[in-house]
Structure formats: structure tokens, C-alpha cells
UniProtKB/TrEMBL annotation:
Stated family: In the C-terminal section; belongs to the homoserine dehydrogenase family.
Keywords, comma-separated and alphabetical: Amino-acid biosynthesis, ATP-binding, Kinase, Lysine biosynthesis, Metal-binding, Methionine biosynthesis, Multifunctional enzyme, NAD, NADP, Nucleotide-binding, Oxidoreductase, Sodium, Threonine biosynthesis, Transferase
ACT domain boundaries: 320-394
InterPro entries xref list: AceGlu_kinase-like_sf, ACT-like_dom_sf, ACT_Aspartokinase, ACT_dom, AK-HD, AK-HSDH_N, Asp/Glu/Uridylate_kinase, Asp/hSer_DH_NAD-bd
Encoding gene, per UniProt annotation: thrA
This protein's pathway: Amino-acid biosynthesis; L-threonine biosynthesis; L-threonine from L-aspartate: step 3/5; Amino-acid biosynthesis; L-methionine biosynthesis via de novo pathway; L-homoserine from L-aspartate: step 3/3; Amino-acid biosynthesis; L-lysine biosynthesis via DAP pathway; (S)-tetrahydrodipicolinate from L-aspartate: step 1/4; Amino-acid biosynthesis; L-methionine biosynthesis via de novo pathway; L-homoserine from L-aspartate: step 1/3
Domain of life: Bacteria
Name this protein carries in UniProt: Bifunctional aspartokinase/homoserine dehydrogenase
GO molecular function, one term: homoserine dehydrogenase activity
Length: 815
């Protein structure tokens, strides 16, 4: 015998009813089959609403009319597809059951109250009608059907709305029934009978519970729970990325997962199948090919496998403390007596090693009643100050990690606490389950999503993930995306995945629910209608649920750079090619670094100087090893490197500048390059990295251009005006050549910290002599590197090398 149970989402419409009938038919062809059905999706909610509209009879009739339409539409659709469907009989059953509801609601409206026994009858109608409909589908397919009446066969005790089945008595009753071998057995879930054989309900997840009980009573070899998910995952896949479907878990693990919030099976559903050792499998009617998850007898005690991370929200923690707590007679037993009398669900209970403090975690909704009962019980102890006033902390959550023999794996707890510590999430209480299958911790509820995501990632993923919010898709940003796409396979081999979550420019942004498809991002960005501004960006950052988020700033925007401290405070790393933050006031420069250190986040900006050259990292490494800068000379502009190289070859200044612009070395208006300000910014960053407290205005710039040249904002006007300087620069170049020297635009840092930017005549024996064609060269004279300096040389301009430098910084986030 196999027991099949189908949930409401599996019975949402005619197509799904027929699909379920196909599954039943296929199983029955292989052996005896029993089926438990829930109400169709949304039907139970409507039935509950009827019971809540006790003061408005018209509303109740409207809801009943809605239900009638749902069921009549359902059987009309079935009649169109299922040949020989018993339409009239089915319709008659539906109308009869709904008429009973109408009669009951009339009484409810007169009484202005809905008795619990009446409420139970009304709410149960969805399951009863599901069975009527499925019975007639199967009969139309020439199958014989026997309906098991749970009211007479499931003996239960409890309330009308939440009863518990007496398994042994129910087993005796069902064993007395003579079932025909060629019959399919059908039963409504969620329903049982009390001693008076009145209809009662089995509470939350009652249909699953019914299925487990019936599986026991029929001695089924297997209980299949069909729902709308593939099985049990290591975490909720709707909230956490990169979860894993579990092939199997033990009864105890399933119990722990369920108890601590996982939406699989209710603990009391697991109890009967565990007690009678009936394997259970969770399967998906939306994905029948999925293997599902088996819940069965535990593994060999020597094995260890983590099974999941789950959580409970809306938890309150009540602290019982006092210096004289040891003197309080029967303290623990009295607390447990209150728990029993109040039917309070205890999530966690811990006691400090000094025995002067007990923490009890309960559901927030039960905290006031529980606190009042404690205060009444211990009023004398509180009055005599044997106990401190009880303190309740609300807005908490419990995160739990579940696994067989979790206590035998020495590094699980350390990984959990290390992960939370790195994320700056405080742990308020800790408990390890007596079953030794769980570790639970209490955190503030506002951190629970982040905590679950990070702990799950640490414990279940070998892959290193970076979530990128890219701002700026000019030449550098676009090239960066191209490089990431080209390197995806190589990164996968190293278990690294860069997930682009947001792409934005100054006008709009692309932010799908899942990661962006880089093979089609340009088209998707073109079609997006989401407006971008700083407020939108801040909202995304504040509400983010990314695992390892990084802001990548490929703009030159001042306003974006002024948000860096906020980005870091909101748990984002920053990778930037934008020099504005590092050349802002020294106070802001220092605050960024203090915040990054405090939040344990990385602020990386290698491309601020030298594009793809490792200038910043080299200087940091020198200082970290005890070396210090004595002086520095460097060519820090790729555009000016090209222009002065062409001057050396006899080309005029205006022509060389045109060529540099055509090759993409310059800014849109070459005036910005020739002003020398960009070189000064780079020099300022190097000076600050070397330890000098320098401001931009401290740097002496000997300009290449007269002041009036900056008035020409249009590139073609500027290039035309530049011709006036050709004779002057020709003369300067000839003068240098006469000395066997060349002209270079050089940035200098002296040992006093003084910085300057100017044209210099460079002789043949100088390390900057051969630097041209867009190259940068940086000569560091230090304690360790003198008289021969440490030299970095290579292309210092262009989208490819700059994007490559940003890409390299991005990967350093993982180090």
C-alpha cells in the first residue's frame, strides 16, 4: 500500500485535478493506493472568511457565491476535458454542501457568533468537496473508489479546531474495514471525529497529519506528500540563493527543521511516520521529474551531514536573574509549571554557568501572558529582591543549524560565530539541542535575513560569490562587463562567481530580481524604465539582501564619491576608478578608511593612479614592511605621455593632442588633460598613501596652458586655439633636444612632502627618458630602493587596462 497526499496548490484548477488523477492512476497500476486530499487552493481562506463575517450576512452570502463559482467553473472545465465525467452528480454534491453552509451562516448571523463546532464544519467543506470531485474523475476513468470517512475512523481528542488523533484506536477501527483490493481509497484531510463522532479539525497542517496517520493505519510502505516545491532544501530557496535540494533527511532532522521554522512538515506529522518507521517523500506536482526528498530512519551514527539553516521570527526573550537566584526554592520546576499551565511554546531555554541568569525564548504573541504569570508566581521573591525585575526583549529571531550528530563536528559552531562576528551581528543567546542535532542562536530580528544568508553560504557553499552594483557604464564600465563575461568559465573553475545585480548610469538602472544576464545586458538596459538617482541607490543599499555586496564606481561623479561612507556603513565593499573621494578633503579621506576598518570592508582604488599598474598596492606594501618614501618622480598621465612622445618626434602640440584624442587617450575635452589637474590628483593620492597630510591646493602646478585657454569648452574650439602654442612648444622641444634631453610632464614628491607638477627636461640616464606612447612610469626612491629606484612602467590609459585594474580589485574582495 502506498499513501499519496496532495496539497491545495496541487488541486488549484481542473488541469491540476486531472494531473493529480494521472499520478493516482499511475501509482494504482503498480499496487494498492490510498489518497488524502486538501481543499483546492484559496478555498479554505474563503471558508474561514465566512466564519469571520458574523455581523454581515450579505458578505457571507457573497463569499458563498464566490465559492460556488470556483467549484462550478472547476467542474465545467473538467467536463470539457474528462470524458464520461459525472458532471450532474458532482454538481449536486457541491450545491448540497454549499447549501449546508448557507443554512449554518443564517444561524451565525442571528446569533452574532460562530460556535467552534459550526466553524469546524464550515472550514472542512473544501476537503470534502475535493474528495467528491476526485472520486468522480476516477470513476469516469473506470476505477472503483472507496471513501474513508475520517469522522468515524479517526478517533481524536482536543478541541473542535485543533484535535489530536489517537493512533492506536484509529488503527483498530480502520483494520476492521474490509477494503476491496481493486479500489482506490480516498479520504479528506484535516478532519477527524471526537468521542461523540462530531466533526473536528486537526489544526495547522492537518491534511499532512491526516496522511501520516492513515499511512500508519494502513501499514503503508511509503507516504508521498505532493506539494508545490521539489522537496526539502538547505534553506528557503525563495529567500536565499544557491540552496541545495536534500536527497534525504532523518526523521529527527526533519523534526528539528520543522520546529525551528522550516516550512516542510509539521512536527506532529513527522511523529507517527517516525514512530512506525514509514518512509516519507516530499514531491512536486509542478516538477514531477524531481527526485524529491526522503524522510526516513536516521543514518549510521558515525556519519555527519549538515541538513539546513532555518529560522523563527517574532521571538521574545525573557530574562530571569538575580544574585540570590540559587536561593529561590524550586525555581526551575515552578517556571515549567507556568509553561505547562499557559500552554506556552518554549523555543529555547538557557542558564548561565554562574547559575544567576535564565533566558527563556518564546513567541512574542505569548510573552505578555507568560510574563504576567511569572510575576504572579514569584511576587514574593521579586518583592524581597531575591530576583531582579523580569526583563523582556522583543523583536528577536532564532537561527538554527540542523544536522545529524552536529555536536561531533568541531568546527561548525566556530564557523557560525566567525561568520556572524565578521558581519557585526551580535549573538544574544546560544543553545544546542538535547537531541544533538541542532545549534540555535538568538539575534535581533533586523539582522536575521543577513545572518541566515551568510551562515548558509559559509556552511553549504564552496563557491565564492561577489554581488556587484555597477555605477557607470561608459568606456571603463562597459569594458569591465565584457571582461567579466569573457572570464566566466575561468572563474567557475576557481569556484568564483561574479553576479551583477545592478547596472546604472546617471539616468536609469537595470535591477532584475535575479542576477543580470551579461550576454544580453545592453538590450535589457535599453529597455529598462527604472529611474536612477541617489535616493534610489540609497534605498537599494539600505534594503539589500546580497551575500557579498560590492559597489563598483566607474564614474567620475563627485556626488557618488561623497556617499562612500554610507556605502561602507551599509555593509558594502567599494571598488572605484573614481578619484574624487581620495582627492577630497583629508578629513573625508581618513573617515573612509576608518569606516572601512570599523565595518571590516574593503575600499579598493588601484586604478586611481596608473590605471592597471599596481602603484597603490606597491606603495602600501613598501610602507607595511617598514620602508618609507624618500622621493618620487613619475609620469602619471597616459594622454600627456603620448603627447610629449609625439613632440619628441617633431609633431606639433595641437596635432599630437588631436591624435591622442582620436586614440581615446584624452578626456572628451583635451583641455582637462593639458590643465595638469588630473596629474595633480594622482600625485595627491600617492602623497597621502605615503603618509603625507596633503591637500589638493598644496600641490604646485606649473600649467601647460595660459589661463584663458580653459574658457574653450568645446573640443574643436580648444584644439583650434591650441595651435597658438605650437611655436612655443617647438622652441621648448628644440632646446631640450640640444641638451640630448626630452620634455616630459612630471609629478614630483619630495622628502618634505612638497608636491609639484610641471614640464621637465629629462636626460638620457633618467628612468623616465623613454616613457611615451601612452605609458605611465613611477619611480619610487625609498630607504630600500636607492640610488636605483623601484620602477613601475606600463600603459596608464585606455579602457582595457583600467577595466582590468578594476576587475583585479574586484577579485581582491575575496582575499
Amino acid at each position: 500500500m502506498k499513501l499519496l497526499k496532495f496539497g491545495g496548490t496541487s488541486l488549484a484548477n481542473a488541469r491540476k485535478f486531472l494531473f493529480v488523477a494521472d499520478i493516482i492512476e499511475k501509482n494504482f497500476q503498480c499496487g494498492k493506493t490510498a489518497v488524502v486530499l486538501s481543499a483546492p487552493a484559496t478555498v479554505t481562506n474563503h471558508l474561514v472568511s465566512i466564519c469571520e463575517e458574523i455581523v454581515n450576512y450579505d458578505n457571507m452570502l457573497t463569499i458563498i457565491a464566490t465559492l460556488e463559482k470556483i467549484f462550478i467553473d472547476l467542474i465545467n472545465d473538467l467536463n470539457k476535458v474528462q470524458s464520461n465525467f459525472l458532471y450532474e452528480i458532482t454538481k449536486k454534491n457541491i450545491i448540497r454542501e454549499l447549501d449546508q453552509i448557507k443554512n449554518l451562516t443564517h444561524g451565525i448571523s442571528l446569533l452574532k457568533t460562530c460556535p467552534k463546532n459550526v466553524r469546524a464544519i464550515i472550514i472542512s467543506k473544501g476537503e470534502i468537496l475535493s474528495v467528491y470531485i476526485m472520486k468522480n474523475i476516477l470513476i469516469s476513468r473506470n476505477y472503483k473508489v472507496t471513501i474513508i470517512d475520517p469522522i468515524y475512523n479517526f478517533a481524536s481528542s482536543g478541541t473542535y479546531l485543533d484535535s489530536t488523533v489517537d493512533i492506536l484506536e484509529s488503527k483498530k477501527r480502520i483494520e476492521k474495514i474490509h477494503f476491496q483490493k481493486d479500489n482506490i481509497l480516498l479520504m479528506s484531510g484535516f478532519i477527524a471525529g471526537n468521542r461523540k463522532q462530531e466533526l473536528v479539525l486537526l489544526g495547522r497542517n492537518g491534511s499532512d497529519y491526516s496522511a501520516a496517520i492513515l499511512a500508519v493505519c494502513l501499514k503503508a510502505k511509503c507516504c508521498e506528500i505532493w506539494t508545490d516545491v521539489d522537496g526539502v532544501f538547505t534553506c528557503d530557496p525563495r529567500e536565499i540563493p544557491n540552496t541545495h535540494l536534500l536527497k534525504s533527511i532523518s526523521y529527527q532532522e526533519a523534526m528539528e527543521l520543522s520546529y525551528f521554522g522550516a516550512k516542510i512538515l509539521h512536527p506532529r506529522t513527522i511523529e507517527p511516520i517516525s514512530q512506525f518507521n514509514i518512509p516519507c517523500i516530499i514531491k512536486n506536482t509542478k516538477n514531477i521529474k524531481s527526485n524529491g526528498t526522503w524522510i526516513k530512519k536516521k543514518y549510521n551514527s558515525n556519519t555527519f551531514l549538515l541538513k539546513g539553516v532555518t529560522y523563527l521570527k517574532k521571538i521574545a526573550m525573557l530574562n530571569i536573574s538575580g544574585m540570590y537566584i540559587k536561593n529561590v526554592r524550586n525555581l526551575i520546576s515552578r517556571i515549567f509549571s507556568i509553561i505547562y499551565k499557559n500552554h506556552t511554546k518554549i523555543i529555547l531555554l538557557t542558564q548561565s554557568s554562574s547559575e544567576d541568569k535564565i533566558a527563556v525564548c518564546i513567541l512574542e504573541k505569548e510573552s505578555e501572558r507568560f510574563l504576567y504569570s511569572l510575576q504572579q508566581e514569584f511576587q514574593l521573591e521579586l518583592h524581597n529582591k531575591l530576583l531582579n525585575p523580569f526583563r523582556v526583549t522583543n523583536n528577536l529571531s532564532v537561527l538554527s543549524v540542523i544536522g545529524e550528530n552536529i555536536n561531533k563536528k568541531y568546527n561548525i559552531a566556530s564557523k557560525i560565530f566567525s561568520t556572524l562576528g565578521t558581519a557585526k551581528i551580535n549573538v544574544l543567546a546560544i543553545a544546542q539541542g538535547s537531541s544533538k542535532h541542532s545549534i540555535s542562536i538568538v539575534v535581533e530580528e533586523k539582522y536575521i535575513s543577513q545572518a541566515v544568508q551568510k551562515v548558509h553560504y559559509t556552511l553549504f557553499n564552496d563557491k565564492k560569490i561577489i554581488d556587484v552594483l555597477l555605477i557607470g557604464i561608459g568606456g571603463i564600465g562597459t569594458t569591465l562587463l565584457k571582461q567579466i563575461l569573457q572570464q566566466q568559465k575561468s572563474l567557475q573553475q576557481k569556484n568564483v562567481e561574479i553576479q551583477i545585480r545592478v547596472i546604472a548610469n546617471s539616468k536609469k538602472m537595470l535591477m532584475p530580481e535575479k542576477k543580470i544576464d551579461l550576454s544580453n545586458w545592453e538590450n535589457d538596459f535599453k529597455n529598462t524604465t527604472k529611474i536612477f538617482n541617489l535616493d534610489v541607490l540609497k534605498k537599494i543599499i539600505k534594503n539589500h539582501s546580497f551575500l557579498n555586496p560590492v559597489i563598483v564606481d566607474c564614474t567620475s561623479d563627485q556626488l557618488i564619491s561623497e556617499q562612500y561612507i554610507d556605502f561602507l556603513n551599509n555593509e558594502f565593499h567599494i571598488v572605484t576608478s573614481n578619484k574624487k573621494a581620495n582627492t577630497n578633503k583629508l578629513d573625508y579621506y581618513q573617515k573612509i578608511r576608518k569606516t572601512a576598518f570599523k565595518k571590516n570592508k574593503k575600499f579598493l582604488y588601484e586604478t586611481n593612479v596608473g590605471a592597471g599598474l599596481p602603484a597603490i598596492e606597491t606603495l602600501k606594501n613598501l610602507r607595511n614592511t617598514g620602508d618609507h618614501l624618500i622621493r618620487f618622480k613619475g609620469i602619471l598621465s597616459g594622454s600627456l605621455s603620448f603627447i610629449f612622445g609625439r613632440l619628441e618626434e617633431g609633431i606639433s602640440l595641437s596635432q599630437a593632442t588631436k591624435e591622442a584624442k582620436k586614440l581615446g587617450f584624452t578626456e572628451p575635452n583635451p583641455c582637462d588633460d593639458l590643465s595638469g589637474t588630473d596629474v595633480a590628483r594622482k600625485l595627491l593620492i600617492l602623497a597621502r598613501e605615503a603618509g603625507y597630510k596633503t591637500e589638493l591646493q598644496d600641490i604646485k602646478i606649473e600649467p601647460l596652458l595660459p589661463k584663458d585657454f580653459t574658457n574653450y569648452k568645446k573640443p574643436y574650439e580648444f584644439l583650434e586655439k591650441l595651435k597658438e602654442l605650437d611655436p612655443i612648444f617647438l622652441k621648448k622641444n628644440n632646446k631640450a633636444n640640444a641638451k640630448n634631453s626630452v620634455l616630459r610632464f612630471v609629478g614630483t614628491i619630495k622628502n618634505t612632502g612638497q608636491c609639484s607638477v610641471k614640464i621637465e627636461e629629462i636626460s638620457k640616464n633618467h628612468p623616465l627618458y623613454k616613457v611615451k606612447n601612452g605609458e605611465n612610469a613611477l619611480a619610487f626612491y625609498t630607504n630600500y630602493y636607492q640610488p636605483i629606484p623601484l620602477i613601475l612602467r606600463g600603459y596608464g590609459a585606455g579602457n582595457n587596462v583600467t577595466a582590468s585594474g578594476v576587475f583585479s580589485d574586484l577579485l581582491r574582495i575575496l582575499s
